[in-house]
Fold:
Amino acid sequence: MHSLIILFVTLGGNREVGGDHRRLGIVGNKLLMTNAPFAQFEDTLMRLDLPVELVDKVEACGFQSSSELVSFAADFVDRPEVLSSLLIEDFGFQPLDAHRMRSALLAISKKQHEVEFLEPSGASTDVSSVKSNAGTIPPEDFKSKPIAYKKVIVNEKAKRRRKDNRGGKDYGLPSNYADEYPRLALELDEFFKFLTIPRASAQDAPIRATTADVYLRHAKLFLGWYIKIYAATADNQELSKDLSVFSIIRNKEKRSATVLLDFILWLRATRNISASYEANVLRGLTKLVKYRFEEESEADPAYGEKSFDDIALVREMRKFHRDASRRQAISPRSSNEDKKWLSWNEYLDVIKALKEEVSQLLASNSIVRKVGVNDAKGKQIATAFQRYIILAIFASVPDRQRTVRELEIGRTFLKDDGGQWIIKHGPDDYKTGKTYGDRPPLVLPAELNPTIDEFINHWRPYLCSGKTTDYLFLQPRTGNQLSGNSVYQIVSRACHKYTGKKTNPHLLRDMLVTHVRGSSNASEKELEALALYMGHSISMQRNSYDRRTIKQ
Structure:
């Protein structure tokens, strides 16, 4: 197969040629009219008599082609008002431009089956090109474009739950709950402080804000259910502005668990929740009960007692949680592992392909770089650098996604005396830090040094959006720190692009442990070292992360 080089140039600064706003493509020695990455989108804008300057705006948002816009808009064909709100709130569009964008995106989405277009250089979904350039050997099924990302359903049960929606989707507290129930809002603020701030009388150690956010979310779901479902169906039940956690959970006796159990039973019946999710919700609700009876408990963990063990309701909640955890341990996984599991070598092939993407982008923009890359193109290249480095770090340091999104240059991400990039965590910087304390430096491979240096020194500024921040990785649209969902999407979409599998960051830990324990001669001492490196115990490694079957 001959080498294909495409160089996009414009005529007279993007002037119209023969009535068409197109670009010239040089393929080999031939000059021909060819589709640009956003040609389909540009055609749609002109057909609807909308300003073509919107192309620059979508590029600045991090989109790389018309195909990505089609995928993005597909979920909103029946919900155009949601699309407008999303464009304004998440992408920073002005209302008028958001309305224009909505019209164009819905039009392009509805006509996607009529148009074929060329993906931009360096962002191709043709896996066969990666096979020749990066040494990746994709499955036979993915020599052509894989199944669309959103059509790969990993958890059919969750999809049916969202579709059926038998109990109503929105059962949490309303957004204006602070106006309707000011006392409840004040108590939820105090609940968050109870979880996160050290106090002289505290029976439990404070937890990180990110964990507290999860417990707070569970509390809000329970309280929203109480207001919208439970109280609404109860006889003569009137709710006032003075509604309080203290009036909902009336006393510390076991019988007060009834309303909490009713919530769990409702989730089972109407939401078809898994045992794993039930255990998580019960953990959060137990924290809420502890907050409720903080002033009434006289238990003293300093003398060997369990925290709040003198509160009968807390003991009852712990019993519910143990039951859910037991069922979780023996329950089959709710997701289809075949649609997200990769062998470790397959994951490494994905990283090779991402590295090649960066190389192709740099090569295709080599002429432009002599005079400086414009913001949209610079952001595209910076995003590709970031994507490659994130997945490469996961291959070198198979840690939780929080490690990647919270990396700070000069604090947790720095160079050692030998000039090697390392990740350095204190007890407060990782999930199990209170158990294992300072971690040994997590050293990244030397071959990543030049790439990381170039990313930080040249390309990362394109992601900052004018902000000053020490976080290593940033959201391309806003310049803010990556969220948990951001990291999830980066990993999942990259793996899907080259394998058709929707792998997630946490599954990478399982994949590595399974690979090491199943296909190597690692000693117990080496396995213990790996467990320490990953921030968990050897028993956790064996029981939770090793996915080998009994036969294996």
In short: The radius of gyration is 27 Å.
